[in-house]
Write a structure and sequence with these properties.
single chain, alpha+beta, Alpha-Beta Plaits, 5-stranded antiparallel sheet, 5-stranded mixed sheet
């Protein structure tokens, strides 16, 4: 199909005497003719990256290019680096399949040229329609298989992996790693945010290798599964590429919520993807609530929060781990005592290091720790008590302000 579309775009460009470009309905570049000036920044970036940027897509949508079913002219947008254009929607029975574009900086594209372009758009629509029927079926099979990979039923996971490999949708049976993209804060995962996240997932998937990755949008997060070692692109590098794509989307769509990425461990086979997926989702949810962890949190680096995230999902109250924590928090000045205690426990009970970290005199530190023992009803010389208090503190930190967060989505 691509060869036929390239033939169409080259022929119409020669016929009307100006460069032509075909995009699909999502404004991903499919084919383009050779270009000479005038070429604006939007066209240049579209050709280099093979896609149109989110803010330009939004601008075109605002001007109605997704609604019209005949040729239309679009004005210049200097703030976007966009020259005037002639747009011919590529449609089949009122179904929008893509766009045929011409830059018309001086408005000299004639009606005769536009009629010739409309004939080329009609020819392209027949090709895209046939390809779309096959592509839609493949996409549907892929999405269904990807969801089945995350099933709690082992037989479903095995069958999904088998189908993906046999259909050639994924070419490597592992190792498989999951990356989860989670919005931060109380903002809903609304349509602009979902579109921005999926755009970033698609760009990173293509960068990694289409047949070595899958992506899936879930109710409150996005997912990327990578399988195999695509030319040495390791999971941290994939996470960086995805982070950069998300940053670009946020710069161009200021209303989109900040996101974090959770990175699961590598599992040996595609059918084991659910294990990495659950780790990635938990890592992302921890990172969304603990900013100190940064934008990318890997399951392997979470330390105690691996266990804490599992306890949090069970609905366990930190007070059940150590009831003395609540008494500490309810006391005047209790927050200072809690911070002192947490630092002391983080530093393995090393009083000298704790005093230095908090810039306290050793006598002040000992007084605070004594007050902690009195108020919490504990003995900090008891290793079991220290363990319970430490775990309760980490749970309280993770759950603080998270009472209204959405329930985790079932896989």
């Amino acid at each position: 199909m691509l060869g036929d579309l390239q033939r169409i775009v080259d022929a119409v460009a020669q016929r009307v005497g100006r460069a032509a470009l075909i995009e699909d309905s999502h404004q991903l570049v499919i084919a383009y003719s050779s270009h000479a000036e005038p070429m604006d920044e939007v066209r240049r970036e579209s050709i280099l990256s093979r896609h149109t940027t989110p803010e330009v897509i939004g601008w075109f949508r605002a001007h109605g290019v997704h609604r019209v079913r005949g040729p239309m002219r679009t004005p210049a947008a200097p703030e976007l680096g966009l020259l005037p254009r002639v747009c011919l929607p590529i449609v089949h029975r009122d179904l929008l399949l893509g766009f045929l574009w011409f830059i018309d900086a001086d408005g000299t594209m004639s009606d005769q040229d536009i009629r010739a372009a409309a004939e080329a758009a009609a020819e392209a629509s027949r090709l895209l329609h046939r390809a779309g029927l096959l592509g839609d079926l493949a996409s549907q099979r892929e999405a269904e298989a990807a969801r089945a990979l995350l099933s709690d039923v082992a037989e479903s996971r095995e069958q999904a992996a088998k189908e993906l490999l046999e259909d050639g949708l994924v070419v490597n049976d592992g190792p498989v790693v999951a990356l989860a993209v989670q919005p931060v804060g109380d903002a809903a995962f609304d349509e602009p945010a979902r579109a921005a996240v999926e755009h970033a997932l698609v760009l990173t998937r293509r960068w990694y290798g289409d047949r070595s990755a899958l992506h899936l949008m879930r109710r409150d997060h996005g997912l990327l599964l990578i399988s195999g070692d695509a030319r040495g692109k390791k999971p941290p590098a994939v996470a960086r590429h995805l982070t950069d794509s998300l940053h670009t989307a946020r710069r161009r769509l200021p209303g989109v919520a900040r996101t974090v990425i959770g990175l699961g461990e590598a599992y040996p086979r595609l059918a084991d993807a659910a294990g990495s997926y659950h780790e990635a989702v938990r890592s992302a949810r921890v990172a969304a609530r603990l900013p100190d962890l940064g934008e990318v949190a890997s399951w392997s680096s979470l330390g105690v929060y691996r266990a804490v995230s599992l306890l949090d999902e069970s609905g366990l109250d930190p007070r059940a781990v150590h009831p003395g924590l609540l008494r500490l928090l309810r006391t005047d000045g209790g927050q200072v005592l809690v911070e002192t205690l947490e630092t002391y426990l983080d530093l393995a009970g090393n009083a000298h290091a704790t005093a230095e970290r908090l810039q306290l005199h050793r006598t002040t530190l000992y007084y605070r720790l004594q007050r902690v023992e009195q108020l919490a009803g504990t003995n900090l010389k008891d290793g079991t008590e220290r363990l319970c208090l430490h775990l309760a503190l980490k749970m309280a930190r993770l759950t603080a302000g998270a009472a209204d967060r959405p329930a985790p989505e079932a896989s």
